[in-house]
Design goal:
CATH architecture of the largest domain: 2-Layer Sandwich
Number of helices: 20
Radius of gyration: 34 Å
Strand content: 15-25%
Shape: elongated
CATH class of the largest domain: Alpha Beta
Bound molecules: adenosine-5'-diphosphate
Number of strands: 22
Strand order of the largest sheet: 5-4-3-6-2-1-7-8
Distance between the termini: 81 Å
Helix content: 25-40%
């Protein structure tokens, strides 16, 4: 007897002792595996001439032996070798298994089973023993995998005529739960209709009926093999015949998500290029979405035959979260070896899909704000990155899909909404950058400016890159309030005069902080003594972002130290300039350090600053 891997054991324990009310999903899991196995062989046969199969015979068979309490599911798919039986069924191979590992400490088992298609092991919810007999295509040896549960499993040689796999479940005896039902034709038929109707291979089962002979009145058995599924894949069926629940189940099942998508787009195109597509916009990002493990792509079918699990060329990066299937009779089966650039059909489909998704997102934003914000919470980063990426190639397509926090009501606002409610005479779209809304709100300039204009809060480093890539929205330029002059004309004149008069003072101060390029008075600040702003293309937020990127840390913002003209510190500085040059130097250093800290920058000389402050504190 071999032991299961630890994670498998845990999962299995959950299955066996499950109080989960939806045990019936076990059948869906097994059928789905069988269908995958047939897909694999089918695809192989289409691309490898040496493999010859009769594709009309590809099917899944279900049989029941009530006396022995056996429910068997047989497929003539690719099968498994001894090693594959061992590695596939001895450990969790599931895409959701990582999620499971991360979650099983925290959540109830009900959650886990509902959330992740738990695959093969779900059989143990209804079976006291599971026996798998499989023969890999091209091999002449069959093997049997057998397990009664958590203790482990055995593998040994077995007999089987043809390639393929049989999963034989010994159904548990009834307790509080009715397990007998899984030995009834009617239950199985109902479950197949409910969960597996979209499977593209026939799922067959023999129905045994008792009928009374009309003349002799004798009872006799009548047997008939029936196909339980409708065989037309969901995406090929008519929209008005599909319920929301069917769309939903299909999505969760096929794309291993436990939450419903925010929307689906089902289209069928006829004309020069014929195709069906069924696309889904998820409500949240998968756990690995923002990692290099995440693979974008749509399932690609050619007339119902799966030819590629994830066709990346069908989706631009900024829409990489979209899931779905595309099926076209106009695609060659060898498409996987070609690329988008080479294939006109694929390119046309990709373009039309892209437009449809954008339109749908715009529609949801307009008509169901709450739903959109739920989606946006997880995918904002991707969309904003999409604007900036590829030198802004897609910026116009995405600009109406992004939202920013706003000073108005701290709610999210689209650029369109911002522009529509701009103040009279306002010519620019103002934004401010910082680590969080709270930090931006405390920024000296924000305090006074937000009384005049609405300000967009950029809290992600990508925000400003996106805005700079857009440059303008409906002819209004974006302006970082940290770099922008926003004073009224009269005050500007007065300020200019005062700045000129203080030139000597500023020159003296600059000697103490040579990395600052300019010092000036401002009347933009309410209570704060100082603020750090920038000149030129690189802002402080960009300097911070660059610092995180390799080989780019030499890029620095050109800094301006602005001093609140009406703050007491202004006259103190003037006084020091006349009477105490050494004191002025120290004051300058401390003020600059303060300004840096407010901006969220670190200081290079903390000991020196601390000593100066201490010196003054002890006076
Ligand atoms: P998943 O299907 O998500 O990978 P499962 O636990 O359901 O997880 O199955 C584990 C693996 O066992 C599958 O990935 C597949 O390789 C293999 N397998 C299961 N059932 C079959 C089958 N009927 N034919 C061939 N391989 C199968």
């Amino acid at each position: 007897m071999k032991e299961f891997k630890t994670e498998s054991k845990k999962l299995m324990d959950l299955m066996i002792n499950s109080i989960y009310t939806n045990k019936e999903i076990f059948l869906r899991e097994i059928i789905s595996n069988a269908s995958d196995a047939i897909d694999k062989l089918h695809y192989k046969s289409l691309t490898d001439k040496k493999i010859k199969i009769d594709k009309d015979k590809l099917e899944i068979n279900i049989s029941i032996d009530k006396d022995k309490r056996l429910l068997s599911i047989t497929d003539n798919g690719i099968g498994m070798t001894k090693e594959e039986l061992e590695s596939n069924l001895g450990t969790i191979a599931k895409s959701g298994s990582q999620d499971f590992k991360n979650n099983n400490e925290k959540k109830e088992d009900i959650d886990i089973i509902g959330q992740f298609g738990v695959g093969f092991y779900s059989a143990f919810m209804v079976a006291s023993q599971v026996r798998v007999v499989s023969k890999a295509y091209g091999s002449d040896e069959a093997n049997e995998w057998l397990s009664k549960g958590i203790e482990g499993y055995t593998i040994k040689k077995a007999e089987r005529d043809d390639y393929g796999t049989t999963i034989e479940l010994t159904i548990k005896e009834n307790d509080d739960e009715d397990y007998d039902q899984y030995l009834e034709y009617n239950t199985i038929e109902r479950l197949i209709k409910k969960y597996s109707d979209y499977i593209t291979y026939p799922i067959k089962m023999e129905e045994v009926r008792e009928v009374e002979d009309k003349e002799s009145k004798e009872k006799k058995e009548e047997r008939e093999v029936k196909t339980l599924n409708s065989l037309v894949p969901l995406w090929k069926r008519r929209k008005n015949e599909i319920t929301d629940e069917e769309y939903d189940t299909f999505y969760k099942d096929k794309f291993f998500d436990y939450e419903s998508p925010i929307s689906h787009i089902h289209t069928s195109a006829e004309g020069t290029i014929e195709y069906n597509s069924l696309l889904y916009i998820p409500s949240h990002a998968p756990f690995n979405y923002y990692s290099k493990d995440y693979e974008k792509g749509l399932q690609l079918y050619s007339n119902g035959v799966l030819i590629m699990e994830k066709c990346a060329d069908l989706l631009p990066d900024y829409l990489s979260f979209v899931k779905g299937v595309v099926d076209s009779p106009d695609l060659s089966l060898n498409i996987s070896r070609e690329t988008l650039q080479q294939n006109r059909v694929l390119k046309t489909i990709a373009n039309s899909i892209e437009n449809k998704i954008i339109k749908e997102l715009e529609r949801i934003l307009k008509e169901d704000r709450e739903k959109y914000e739920m989606f946006y919470k997880d995918f904002a980063l991707q969309l904003k990155f999409g604007i900036y990426n590829e030198y802004g190639l897609n910026k116009d397509k995405i600009k109406d899909l992004i939202l920013f926090n706003s000073s108005n009501d701290l709610k999210q606002v689209s650029l369109k909404e911002y522009v529509d409610r701009k103040k009279d005479g306002q010519t620019k779209i103002y934004y401010a950058c910082g680590d969080s809304i709270e930090m931006i709100d405390k920024m000296p300039k924000v305090e006074s400016l937000k009384e005049k204009y609405e300000i967009l809060y950029c809290t992600e480093y990508i925000d400003e890159f996106a805005l700079l890539t857009l440059r303008e929205y409906e002819k209004m330029e974006f302006a970082n309030i940290a770099t922008e002059d926003v004073e009224p004309e009269e005050e500007k004149e007065e300020l200019k005069k005062n700045n000129e008069e203080a030139k000597g003072l500023f020159d003296e101060m600059l000697k103490a902080i040579p990395e600052v390029s300019e010092i000036k008075f401002t009347n933009n600040l309410k209570n704060h003594p100082v603020v750090l702003t920038t000149k030129g293309a690189v802002s402080i937020e960009m300097e911070k972002a660059m610092k995180l990127m390799p080989n780019a840390d030499s890029i620095k913002a050109t800094k301006v130290l602005e001093i609140n003209e009406s703050h007491e510190i202004a006259s103190k500085l003037k006084d020091l300039y006349e009477n105490d040059k050494e004191g002025l130097e120290k004051y300058t250093k401390v003020l600059y350090a303060q300004a840096r800290l407010i901006e969220g920058l670190s200081i290079d000389n903390p000991t020196e600053i601390s000593n100066i402050i201490c010196e003054y504190l002890s006076k």
